[in-house]
């Protein structure tokens, strides 16, 4: 994902530099600073994010807002129409996201439910306007449910004993969650984010025969980092 993001940003910068160079030599006369040119600072990052980031919802919303603002600056739409169209569009996108998530579900949530039904020791971490440090060195780990609201959680399972597939659900609302995972496991990440995101700081290549840690992160104006 990071490699694709760098490639796309590189292409974008080359195009911009090429336009300036062609204009300087008089080959082209492309108006760079057109009405609403500043909206490109919203449109371009969100567009690139659609291809380079795991979570798309926030980028789709940002892209819609950027396009609406550009159309308003170009007098195609009135600014009063912006709120009439943008707000319903955002609500519909979020609603569709919730419906699809509810219908198709995710592996992490299902594993958590199954683990609780079997009596496994699923840990719970909650940080509201505070911080929490959860360390599982040398302990058996069966899964965890993490929630950070205006706070932060550090969950370290890098030296935990993981004998079977397990799951972590992480909800970061105006907060942050850091999850440290071992090198000898497979990691599968799914996310539902609105103006937030999930990042994997360390690449975890697939290991044949290893157990899998499923992570489902919901980030609203917050973030989850997998390290």
Task: Please characterize this protein's 3D structure.
The protein has 227 residues and is of the alpha/beta class. Strands 1-3-5-9-7 form a 5-stranded parallel β-sheet. Helix 1 runs antiparallel to helix 2, helix 2 packs antiparallel against helix 3 and helix 3 packs antiparallel against helix 4. The longest helix is centred in the middle third of the chain and has 26 residues. The protein is elongated. The relative contact order is 0.11.
Summary keywords:
five-stranded parallel beta sheet; 5 helices; about 40% helix; about 25% strand; single chain; alpha/beta; about 230 residues
The amount of beta strand, in percent, is 25-35%
Helix content bin? 25-40%
Counted by DSSP, the helix tally is: 5
Strands side by side in the biggest sheet? 1-3-5-9-7
String of helices and strands: HHHHHEEEEEEEEEE
Q: Main beta sheet: strand number and arrangement?
A: 5 strands, parallel
Radius of gyration: 22 Å
Total DSSP E strands: 10
Question: Spans with pLDDT under 50 lasting ≥5 residues?
Answer: none
Mean pLDDT: 81
Given helix and strand content, the structural type is alpha/beta
The rounded distance between the terminal residues' Cα atoms is: 15 Å
Shape annotation: elongated
Break the fold down into its secondary structure elements and pairings.
Layout: H1 2-24, H2 40-52, H3 57-73, H4 79-104, H5 107-117, E1 123-128, E2 131-135, E3 143-149, E4 152-156, E5 166-173, E6 176-180, E7 186-194, E8 197-200, E9 212-220, E10 223-226
Parallel strand pairs: 1-3, 2-4, 3-5, 4-6, 5-9, 6-10, 7-9, 8-10
């Amino acid at each position: 994902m990071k490699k694709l993001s760098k490639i796309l940003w590189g292409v974008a910068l080359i195009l911009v530099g090429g336009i300036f160079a062609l204009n300087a030599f008089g080959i082209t006369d492309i108006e760079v600073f057109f009405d609403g040119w500043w909206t490109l600072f919203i449109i371009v990052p969100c567009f690139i994010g659609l291809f380079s980031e795991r979570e798309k919802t926030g980028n789709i919303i940002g892209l819609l807002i950027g396009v609406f603002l550009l159309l308003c600056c170009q007098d195609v739409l009135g600014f009063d129409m912006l709120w009439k169209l943008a707000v319903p569009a955002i609500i519909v996108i979020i609603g569709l996201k919730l419906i699809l998530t509810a219908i198709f579900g995710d592996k992490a949530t299902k594993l958590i439910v199954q683990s609780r039904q079997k009596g496994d020791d699923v840990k719970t971490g909650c940080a509201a306007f505070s911080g929490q440090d959860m360390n599982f060195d040398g302990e058996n780990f069966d899964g965890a449910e993490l929630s950070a609201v205006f706070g932060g959680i550090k969950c370290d399972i890098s030296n935990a004993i993981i004998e079977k597939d397990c799951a972590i659900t992480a909800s970061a609302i105006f907060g942050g969650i850091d999850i440290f995972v071992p090198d000898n496991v497979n990691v599968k990440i799914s996310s539902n984010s609105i103006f937030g995101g999930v990042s994997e700081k360390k690449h975890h290549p697939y290991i044949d025969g290893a157990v899998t840690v499923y992570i489902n992160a919901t980030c609203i104006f917050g973030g989850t980092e997998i390290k």
